[in-house]
Amino acid sequence: MTAFLTIIVLILIAIAIWQMTKIFEFSQIGIKDAQIANDKDNKLNGYLMFAFLGFLYVLTIFSLWKWGRVLLPKSASEHGGDYDTLMAVSMVLIFTVQLITQTLLYFFAYKYRGAKGRKALFYADNDKLEFIWTIIPVITLAGLILYGLYTWTTIMDINDEDDPLVIELYAQQFNWKARYAGDDNVLGDANVRFLNDFDGQNIVGIDASDPNGMDDVVSTTEIHLPVNRKVVFKMRSQDVLHSAYMPHFRAQMNCVPGMITQFSFTPTITTAEMRQEQDIQDKVKHINELRAERRAKGEDLDDWEFDYLLLCNKICGTSHYNMQMKIVVESEEEFNAWMKEQKTFEETVAGTDR
Ligand SMILES: [Cu+2]
Predict the structure, then answer these.
(1) Cβ 231 vs Cβ 267: under 8 Å
(2) Which domain holds residue 267?
(3) pLDDT in tens, 75-130
(4) Residue 117 lies inside a defined structural domain of this protein
(5) What CATH number does residue 320 fall under?
(6) How confident is the model at residue 6 (pLDDT cuts 50, 70, 90)?
(7) What's the CA-to-centroid distance between 312 and ligand 1, angstroms?
(8) Domain-located, residue 104
């Protein structure tokens, strides 16, 4: 309702301004050449161009200073550093180039503003200039693309050499399930056709005729990862396009119905260690201050604690925003202890009808 009233008020203000301009225009009738820009108008517009340029940069720098802290904390995976460097190099380059070109654009708009008696110069072409402004972007972009491709292939180098932990991320509207490959570290075959087997207990559709699937473990609440061990995630989707996004590990991969996609990374910082980071502590403190304010107004809110997250990064439906799962990175002993508490597929379906 408030939003609706605000919109009405804004529309009324816009109409009022429009009406006032009309009145102003009528009052100008009779003054000769009121519609033709004179030197004073041109100069004013030239200065306004500079003002707009200044506004852009003041806004950019202010936003970075004021909201920079809501950006992601340092990367918690082995490849994350390479990714962040690529991002930083690209951003610095983009910012520098746009600073130079925008400044020139507005400066020329001012320098060659309209003036009485000034005529535009006819200038057909200049091969040398065209060569320069073609070759510089070509070299810069080719360099950036090659550097990006190199980083991408390094990150996407999924091999089984270092005995990675195999986990399936199963996406559906609107939740995640994680399937661990069990003692044999091999995922059993799976298909949506098996979802209704075993009184609906076969929640990711494991094929019971594949012996590899018997020791698989499905978690619906949390993903646990041992620190410093490579993980290979195999993604599946039950219904629509989803995207497995683990921002703290700089990882994202689409989950496509009908095919298995994959992403691999090595987590390097445990959840407990990450919670000790100054950056994270500041964030947590800030969020809990905001929560305390809302609690004071009667809202039912607990204090927040930092956790790694798996999020969905494709708008997949109405509850997309809530499609998330907690990730816990811990020591190998803690991980093994957690794993022991979980039920295997064989244990889960025991006693149910196929
Ligand atoms: Cu989704």
Answers:
(1) yes
(2) 165-349
(3) 999 999 999 999 999 999 998 999 899 999 988 888 888 877 888 888 888 999 99
(4) no
(5) 2.60.40.420
(6) very high
(7) 5
(8) no
Strands 242-246 and 175-180 come out as: unpaired
pLDDT tens digits for range 221-278: 999 999 999 999 999 999 999 999 999 999 999 999 999 999 999 999 999 999 999 9
Ligand 1 centre from 239 Cα, in Å?
9
Residue 206: φ, ψ to 5°:
-75, 140
- The Cα 142–Cα 48 span in angstroms is 37
Distance of alpha carbon 210 from alpha carbon 134, whole angstroms: 58
Q: Is residue 35 part of a domain?
A: no
CA of 264 to the centre of ligand 1 (A): 20
In the numeric block, which tokens belong to residue 38?
A: 């004179």
Residue 130 Cα to ligand 1 middle (Å): 47
CA of 169 to the centre of ligand 1 (A): 12
Number of independent structural domains in the chain: 1
Phi-psi region of 338 (alpha: psi -120 to 50; beta: other; left: phi over 0): alpha
* 194 falls within a domain: yes
* CA-based nearest residue to 312, from 302, 301, 327, 323: 323
Going from the Cα of 63 to the center of ligand 1, the distance in angstroms, rounded, reads 30
- CA 171 – ligand 1 centroid, Å: 7
Any idea what DSSP says for residue 320? Answer: G
Global pTM?
Answer: 0.79
What is the pLDDT, as a whole number, of residue 260?
Answer: 92
Distance 34 CA to ligand 1 centre (A): 59
Cα–Cα dist 206/211, whole Å: 10
Strand order in the sheet with 222-226: 222-226, 324-330, 308-312, 242-246, 251-255
